Amino acid sequence: MSRREEIIQAATKLFAQKGYYATSMQEIAEQSGMAKGSIYNYFKSKEEIAVCIFRYHYEKLFRKMAEVNEDETLSPREKFEKQLSIQIEEFYRHKELVQMHMGEQAVKVNDEVHHLVFLIRAKTLNWYRQAIQDIYGERVKNFALDCATILNGMLKEYMFYMAIDQKELQVTKVAPFLLRRLDAIVESMTERESPLLTIEIMKDYLCVEKTNEQTKRQRIIDCIDEILETLEERDRNESDIIRSLEMLKQEFSQKEEARKFIVEALLLYLESLQVPLLRELKAAIQHYFRT
Questions:
Q1: Mind listing the domains of the chain with CATH numbers?
Q2: 168-182 residue pLDDT tens
Q3: Which residue, 22, 76, 162, 191, could crosslink 134 as a Cys pair with Cβ 3.0–4.6 Å?
């Protein structure tokens, strides 16, 4: 685990236990086992840590969702059940994140965190909506947004019981149980009624993938910074690697549109030099060009 990850995990626990505003950088440093001055080598402020907490955990979750989606041996329902199970297991494993999110501490930090939380909610809604349409077909199309919202609401309540109230539920039973309830909800939808949530009403949520490019770029930049940090810790002369990483960083931080042929050439060169932590960087870049 890198030092950045250690700081993120320490801050997540403290924010959940004490609240964002009641937690100091000094406490985060102590919880991370480092001096307060050293923590500023990794994060400029407490606000930046809060942003990274949500980005780190949710991008890790969405990568796992994407891996399940690529499994062609599973039916749409099997994929969705597996994805929901992974989501529940991840939240149960990281209860501090659920406490922080459900306690609505995150949205009060600053505009950047507020926007990131919106992106996460929107991406989750889009994921549920598409999965529901894949499972139930054309008959549910007009009600897919309502069904996704109802499912998300049910899931949040059960997560609240497990993470906040410490109720001992069988985690493996939650996803199939909720999907059976969703079956009944879909069955109850008829052509005689209209959906509450329409595409027009929810257009800001449905267009989130276009506005999400900045988040994807930032994930790539964070990966590059983490590799640079590792190289510094090894205290070796890696000027060629550092130059290549800085060029790659410029493609995603300064260019209006990253040039794929340059990015692929730089990745190939870095791979030949056996650069550490390159796998996560490659995955982030592949996700950027895939969507």
A1: 51-211 (1.10.357.10), 213-290 (no CATH)
A2: 899 999 999 999 999
A3: 76
